[in-house]
Amino acid sequence: MDIRVKWFYRLGFLLLLFIVIYIFVKLTPLWLPIVNIIFTVSLPFLIAGFISYLLHPVVEILHEKGMNRGLSIAIIYLLFFGGVGFGIYKGIPAMIIQVRELSESVPDVAEQYRHWVTAFENKTSHWPFGVHERLEDGITMIESRLEQLMKIVMAYLMRIFDFILLIALIPFIAFYILKDFDSIKKMVWYLTPKKWRSQGIAFLGDIDASLGGYIRGQILVCATVGTISALLFWIAGMDYPLLLGAIIGVTNVIPYFGPIIGAIPAVIIASSISVKMIIITAAIVFFLQFLEGNILSPLIVGKSLHMHPLFIILALLTGGEIGGLVGLILAVPILAVIKVCILHARNHFTKKKEAVL
């Protein structure tokens, strides 16, 4: 086939693809409600499947050491959900109290903040024309971003209460997935066409090797960092230590930017107490950074992703631009899956080309 004809075919395919995407976007009001219903119904199954994926290796280790499979599932299941349930039972009321206290002290923090802004404006009023205005625009932008962040956090908290019934189903679904894990694998095996089975096993194995250890390690690191930070804040006499520890632990899942995001609320609250508390808070944050970067992550997570930091930063910037905080959290796992997909696609087309030759 002539090269020009090939290019015409490719351009025609791209044009058709853009038309289909345009029509698909225009029909959003028709299919979006259906997608929302499917997502709401499948959400507990996705979360339960993720929890089962995390717990299954531990179950297999106990089973290989001679323990009955059902007993090992029951032990791990009770330890995990029992620990989570106990943490929620003890932690949520204390956290609600601290959130209420924080909301009551917001006027004092705001007054301190306004005092700083006024002093800053007075000191910079004599600066050259344009510089002062740019600083004020920067302060206004930071205020609007913080306000948007608070609205997003509150919206997610309210949605959790909306899904309380679906969330209650997660432990039961996770138990049956763990119990029938081998049966589910066999079902997927028989449903997969024969020509894709070997490639599918290799593909899922590479994703598990690249992503499984990273996710399990990150969860353990985040829980450790959150617990240590809450303990250190409590020892230092910082207000709302449990709440701040939870924020630092959750945001620590975001590489590079997470510790900075998690430290902002702690520094803001410390600034309303004293300069000494700001220094103590900064010291705690730097210590946590050192602990996480030099001890916990290398020991627990290792280098399971095998990706250059520049690619990770690019993924984080893209995820943050597309999905905000959720995009930042999911950026690295999605990048790991994309990497495996590209490697398998390259191997597939290389073998296909060699077979033709």
TrEMBL record:
A UniProt-annotated Pfam family: AI-2E_transport
InterPro entries to which the protein is assigned, alphabetical: AI-2E-like (IPR002549)
Signal sequence residues: none
GO biological process terms on file: transmembrane transport
Segments crossing the lipid bilayer: 7-25, 31-55, 67-89, 156-178, 219-236, 273-291, 311-342
Cellular component annotations (GO), alphabetically ordered: membrane
Subcellular localization, as worded in the UniProt entry: Membrane
Keywords linked to the UniProt accession: Membrane, Transmembrane, Transmembrane helix
Membrane topology note: Multi-pass membrane protein
UniProt superkingdom: Bacteria
Family that this chain belongs to: Belongs to the autoinducer-2 exporter (AI-2E) (TC 2.A.86) family.
The name this protein goes by in its record: AI-2E family transporter
Species of the source: Peribacillus cavernae
